[in-house]
Design brief:
The chain is an alpha+beta fold. It has two domains: 80 residues, Ubiquitin-like (UB roll), CATH 3.10.20; 33 residues. It is built from two helices and five strands. Strands 2-1-5-3-4 form a five-stranded mixed sheet, covered by helices on one side. Strand 3 and strand 4 form a beta hairpin.
Amino acid sequence: MVEHSLDLLLCDAREGEPKLKPFKLVLQANEQATVGLALMRSGVAFGPDDPILARKGCFGVFGKRKEWDSPIYAGDRLELYSPLLIDPKMVRRKKANQNQDAKFQAAAAKRKARRL
């Protein structure tokens, strides 16, 4: 039985400042290196149905969201993400509405100044 290993970086950004730590994923002869296997061997999760990882998009590699059975390669940075506090679409929509309101108010002030 031949073993081989992959050197990975585990970046945990779930609480406060992200913490980077090196991690060695040891594989048996018949095992494929996947994101899920790395999460289990690192002690982060017990399986794909683990409640810690139940929400979508809570882990990825180099900033790209990955599935449980996605392959992982030597030198990859496996990242654990915290949940979003604010929906990015909502923030963009709110900002666009504020900009539109400001333009409307400026145009109204211009019309009022011309009348005086």
